Amino acid sequence: MKDGTATLEVPHGKTFKLKPLQFNGPCNFPSVHFQLEGNIIAPRNTKAWKGHDSERWIEFLNIDGLIIDGGGQINARGSVWWEFCRVSFTFLHLEFISFISNWVIRSILKVLLFIFQENSCSRPTALFIHNCNKFLLNGTRHLNSARNHISINSCTNSKVYNVTTIAPEDSPNTDGIDISQSSYILIQDSTFATGDDCIAINGGTSYINITGVTCGPGHGISVGSLGKKQSYEVVEHVRVYNCSFTGTTNGMRIKTWEGGSGYARNISFQHIILTNTSNPIIIDQKYSDLTNEGKEQTSAVQISGVTYRDVKGTSQSEIAIILDCGGVTGCTDIFMDSINITATSSGSKVRASCNNVHGFTTFTSPPVPCLS
Q1: How far apart are alpha carbons 187 and 204 in whole angstroms?
Q2: Integer Cα distance of 243 and 269 in angstroms
Q3: Residue-by-residue DSSP string for 320-360
Q4: Contacts with 316 (C-beta within 8 Å, 6 or more apart), sequence order
Q5: Are the beta carbons of 157 and 88 closer than 8 angstroms?
Q6: Is there a cis peptide before residue 43, judged by omega within 30 degrees of 0?
Q7: What pLDDT is recorded for position 91?
Q8: 12, 219, 271, 358: which one is catalytic?
Q9: In the 8-state DSSP scheme, what is residue 20?
Q10: How far apart are the first and last CA of the chain?
Q11: Residue 226's closest CA among 261, 176, 196, 183?
Q12: In this structure, what DSSP letter does residue 278 have?
C-alpha cells in the first residue's frame, strides 16, 4: 500500500490463467490500483464458466478511484466461443430462411432464429467495469475477447488512455469498448482493430469524448443501436474528434430501432480521416428485426443536432453518405461542413442517399440532395 492506495500487481514477464473473477467494492481505500505489467489469459474450455456468470470474465464493481494500468495484456482467447456461435447461427441464418416458400415454416424458423439470437450463444465480456466512478484505464492491451472487450456501465468522470484492442476481423460481436448508462467518459489515443464496433455508445449515455482514436478493421464508431424492443433510450453530448477509420465496414454510424422512443442529440464528428471505408457516414433510423418486420411503426428515437465537419478520405462503397430517417419523426438539424469523400477505386464515383432528413450542408462532396 502506498499513499492510501491498495495495489495488486501482475508482474512483468509472468502469465496467469484466470478463471471468471469478480472484484466487488466498495473498498476501504481511497483508490485501488490494478497494475498489469504481465499477462492474463482466459481458460480455453468454456466449462470454466460453469457456476459463474457466462456473460463476464473479469469484473470490477462499485470501486471508485479504480486504476488499471501497465504495459501488460488481457487475452480472452475467445476463438472457441466464436466457433460455437458461427456453427449455431449458420443453421438458422436468415439467408437460409429466405429460400423457404412455405410461410408457416418460414415464420417458425424466424421465431427460432430470434430466440437463438436473444437467448443462446451467451459469451463473456472480457473486462466489465460497473459503477466505478473516476476510474482510469491506461496502457493495456486487450486481445480476442469472446464478446466485447471492455464494457463501461454506470460509470462517471472516467478516462481511458492508450488502450489497444485486437481481434480478427471476422470475430463476432467483439466490440472494442461498449459504453452504457454512463457520463463524462474520455477515450483518447487508443487503437481498435476488431470484428465489430470499435466503440459503441449505448442508451443512458451522455458527455462522451472520443479523441485521437484509430479504428480498423471493425464496424466503426456507433451511437446505438437505440430503442430495441420498443424501449425508451437516450444519448446526448457525444464528441468524436481527430479520429481515423481504415478498412471499416462503417465509419460514423447512428442506429435506432423502429418502434423505439427517446432521442439521440448533440452529436459531433470532427476532423475525421477515412481510408477505404465502407459506409463512411450513416444514419439508420429504420433498424428492425424479425419481430417487427413489415409492421407499421408509430414511434421512433428522435435524432437531432448532428454535426459532421472536416471529414476527408476514401469510400469503398458507392453510397458514401446514407441518411435514412423514418416518417414518424425524421432527423432534424443535421449539419455537414467541409466534407470531401471520394471513391477508393480510381475512376469511380460516390454519391449520397437521404430520406426525411432536415438540415443543411456547406462545402460537401458528394452533395446530399435533401439537405439545402
Answers
A1: 17
A2: 9
A3: EEEEE--TTT-EEEEEEEEEEEEESSTT---EEEEESEEEE
A4: 247, 276, 277, 278, 344
A5: no
A6: no
A7: 46
A8: 219
A9: S
A10: 61
A11: 261
A12: S
Q: Are 182 and 156 in contact (CB under 8 A)?
A: yes
Round the CA-based radius of gyration of the chain to a whole number and report it. 21
> Could you tell me the three cell numbers for 303?
435524432
The DSSP code for 300 is: B
The 10s digit of each residue's pLDDT in 302-316 is: 999 999 999 999 999
Q: What average pLDDT does the segment 260-277 reach?
A: 98
- The model's pLDDT over 283-301, given as tens digits with 9 standing for 90+, comes to 999 887 655 555 566 678 9
The grid cell for 238 is: 457525444
Residue listed under C-alpha cell 456473460: 55
Residues 6+ apart with CB under 8 A from 329: 285, 300, 301, 302, 303
CATH code of 197-372, in short, is: 2.160.20.10
Q: What secondary structure letter does DSSP report for 1? A: -
Active site residue 219: yes
- Say what angle helices 79-91 and 103-119 make with each other, to 10 degrees: 160
Classify residue 120 by its DSSP letter: S
Determine the 3-state secondary structure of 134 from DSSP.
Answer: coil
> Could you give the CA distance from residue 52 to residue 22 in angstroms, rounded to a whole number?
10
What are the strands, taking DSSP E only, across 3-55?
A: 5-10, 15-17, 21-24, 31-36, 39-41
Cα gap 99→113, rounded to integer Å: 15
Residues ≥6 apart with Cβ < 8 Å to 105: none
**At residue 48, what are phi and psi to the nearest 5 degrees?**
-60, -20
Res. 88 pLDDT band, cuts 50 70 90: low
What are residue 94's phi and psi, to 5 degrees? -60, -35
List C-alpha distances in Å: 370 to 232, 257, 324, 359.
28, 22, 11, 8
| Percentage of residues in the chain having pLDDT higher than 90 | 77
Stated pTM of the model: 0.91
Tally of CB atoms within 10 A around 78:
28
pLDDT digits over 10-63, tens only?
999 999 999 999 999 999 888 899 999 999 999 999 989 988 888 999 999 999
